[in-house]
Amino acid sequence: GLGAYKYLVSTEKNVQELYEAAHLLDLEFVVASCASFIGTSLSVSNAAGVFHFAGLFQDTTLQNLARDFVGKHFAQVSREAEILTLPKDTLAMIIQDDMLQAPENAVFDLVVRWVLVEPEQRRAQFSVLLEYVRLPLMTPLELVDVVESCPLLIENWGAQQLLNEAKNYHLLPD
Predict the structure, then answer these.
(1) Range list of β-strands (E), the chain
(2) Which residues of 20-56 are buried (b: 16+ CB within 10 A; e: fewer)?
(3) Are 115 and 85 in contact (CB under 8 A)?
């Protein structure tokens, strides 16, 4: 009966594997039960991974739940190791979310830390991700002290252009 499914879903260790298997077998009730369990188990340590996982399965309900959680708890989630393992496109979706409750210097810091995890592979993606950091919302002091002094920026023309645009925003207000 259904009690067996509830038992299977009762452990965080196997719920994603069960979700994957149920999705493959088109067992909608099991998928829904797993998604519900995952949704109620969101934490700062797993929310970024759940966001990515839900995206892989095009589970927009679970993905939106995880996105909202990440947005509300960005300061804590961004300090977790899991967020540094996300693919570029998933990280981009998170940092460009308008509901993200974070100062832009924290978003910039996350992008830098993400690149530095695998600098040889990720360095080229720095300016792509930097486009989603709202640099003009940073103070002029942050732009000079934090962004301009970042070693990744020195070697990246595209990133330098984004910084110049943000500086011009402060120098030449409408």
Answers:
(1) none
(2) eebbeeebeebbebbbebbbeebebebbbbbbbbbbe
(3) no
pTM over 0.90? The answer is: no
Question: pLDDT tens for residues 102-116?
Answer: 999 999 999 999 999
Q: Which amino acid is at 141?
A: L
Three-state DSSP class for 155?
Answer: coil
Q: Which two tokens stand for residue 165?
A: 């645009």
Number of C-beta neighbours around residue 79 at 10 A: 15
For residue 53, give the nearest of 63, 42, 45 by alpha carbon: 63
pLDDT tens for 35-46 read 887 788 899 999
Q: What is the pLDDT of residue 10?
A: 52
Please, what sign has the CA dihedral across residues 60, 3, 24, 91?
Answer: positive
